[in-house]
């Protein structure tokens, strides 16, 4: 091969390599989406949402998380299954997708948001950059969501959870029971619950430092609350708020008033402990406080009932998803 030809080949190789770097640098960061209760990974609504995201960020790679590829089975898995096993399965799923190797942004709808948080804390490989959760039950729920009249699977799961919510079967098979946190039965919750007590690092003897490190590695945590949410009880759980444990009511009222009018979302009988007064925050059990003190916890509100997103998603996706890698 002549020296001129060698130089030409070398130049072409350098140009190709530089072009590949430029293309990668300008490509939108991939996005992972985890659907909510009663939905599936490729339902018409999810496919439409993914399509709208691609309109906002042309060229973006979007993966919709599944527990089962079959849509009906995937929907059922939102009601019945072991959440710890589901999150572990998803971690393996995401690790096998080459497009996600350098990290991704993530959007979780309802319970999908707290499951993505569990992924961040426990696995986070590949890592999450920005996490956006819509109406997610980060501090659990104090009532099981009501089912549609003809939703048989939901009704079966709800009856099982309500009948023995802290029984062994419910805590390993009923998805909603695994994040049911009853303030009137808090000791039993701490004894029986496996999933929520774990991702919130609630047990002093078994707190996991990896959770703190991984969660604190997020760039931004965007917490979205629905202003008229009646499905998630209390709705403030979406902002890491929870109902006060009854014996703490008097203290909670005083502390809550000191938090300021912007946090006042009390009903007639409920006392809500906001995020910055939670022991989880004050003692930084999961790294939430360090995120917040960096200015990286973003509180947002969507007007309407649970998962009535409308156009509320768009400015959040524009700002917190699809950034250049």
Question: What's the gist of this structure?
Answer:
Its EC number is 3.1.2.22. Helix 4 packs across helix 5 (111-122) and helix 5 crosses helix 10 (209-216). The two termini are 39 Å apart.
Strand content: 5-15%
Distance between the termini: 39 Å
Question: What radius of gyration results from the CA coordinates?
Answer: 22 Å
- Helix and strand string, N-terminal first? HEHEHHEHEHHHHHEEHEHHEH
Q: Give the helix level as a range of percent.
A: 40-55%
Shape: globular
Derived from helix and strand composition plus strand pairing, the structural class reads alpha/beta
Characterize the largest beta sheet: strand count, sense, and whether it forms a barrel: 6 strands, parallel
Number of helices: 14
Number of strands: 8
Tell me, rounded to a whole number, the average pLDDT.
87
Q: Give, in spatial order, the strands making up the sheet with the most strands.
A: 2-1-3-4-5-8
Low-pLDDT sequence parts: 14-24, 249-268
Explained architecture:
Strands 2-1-3-4-5-8 form a 6-stranded parallel β-sheet, with helices on both faces. A two-stranded antiparallel sheet has the order 6-7. It is α/β, with parallel strands linked by helices. 42% of the residues lie in helices and 11% in strands. The protein contains 14 helices and 8 strands. The longest helix is centred in the first third of the chain and has 24 residues, at 3-26. It has helices at residues 3-26, 44-56, 71-76, 83-95, 111-122, 152-163, 168-173, 186-192, 195-199, 209-216, 249-259, 279-282, 288-293, 313-320, and strands spanning 31-34, 62-64, 104-109, 128-134, 220-226, 242-243, 272-273, 297-302. The chain is globular and about 80 Å long. Helix 2 (44-56) links the parallel strand 1 (31-34) and strand 2 (62-64). The model is unreliable at 14-24 and 249-268 (pLDDT under 50).
């Amino acid at each position: 091969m002549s020296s001129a030809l060698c130089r030409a080949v070398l130049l072409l190789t350098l140009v190709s390599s530089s072009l590949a770097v430029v293309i990668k640098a300008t490509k939108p960061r991939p996005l992972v989406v985890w659907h909510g209760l009663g939905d599936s990974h490729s339902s018409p609504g999810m496919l439409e949402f993914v399509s709208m995201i691609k309109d906002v960020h042309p060229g973006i790679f979007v993966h919709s998380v599944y527990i089962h590829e079959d849509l009906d089975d995937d929907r059922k898995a939102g009601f019945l299954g072991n959440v710890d096993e589901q999150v572990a399965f998803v971690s393996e799923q995401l690790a096998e997708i080459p497009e996600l190797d350098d990290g991704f942004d993530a959007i979780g709808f309802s319970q999908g948001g707290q499951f993505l948080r569990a992924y961040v804390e426990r696995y986070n490989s590949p890592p999450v950059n920005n996490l956006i959760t819509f109406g997610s039950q980060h501090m659990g729920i104090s009532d099981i969501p009501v089912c549609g009249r003809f939703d048989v699977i939901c009704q079966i799961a709800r009856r099982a959870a309500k009948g023995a919510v802290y029984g062994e079967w419910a805590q390993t098979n009923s998805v909603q029971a695994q994040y049911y946190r009853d303030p009137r039965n808090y000791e039993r919750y701490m004894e029986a619950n496996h999933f929520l007590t774990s991702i919130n690092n609630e047990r002093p003897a078994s707190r996991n430092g990896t959770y703190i490190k991984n969660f604190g590695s997020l760039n931004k945590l965007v917490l979205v609350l629905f202003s008229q949410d009646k499905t998630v009880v209390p709705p403030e759980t979406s902002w890491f708020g929870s109902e006060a444990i009854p014996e703490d009511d008097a203290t909670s009222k005083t502390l809550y008033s000191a938090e300021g009018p912007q946090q006042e979302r009390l009903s007639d009988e409920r006392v809500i402990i906001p995020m910055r007064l939670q022991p989880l925050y004050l003692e930084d059990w999961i790294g939430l406080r360090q995120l917040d003190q960096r200015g990286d916890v973003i509180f947002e509100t969507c007007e309407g009932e649970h998962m009535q997103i409308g156009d509320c998603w768009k400015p959040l996706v524009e700002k917190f998803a699809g950034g250049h890698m």
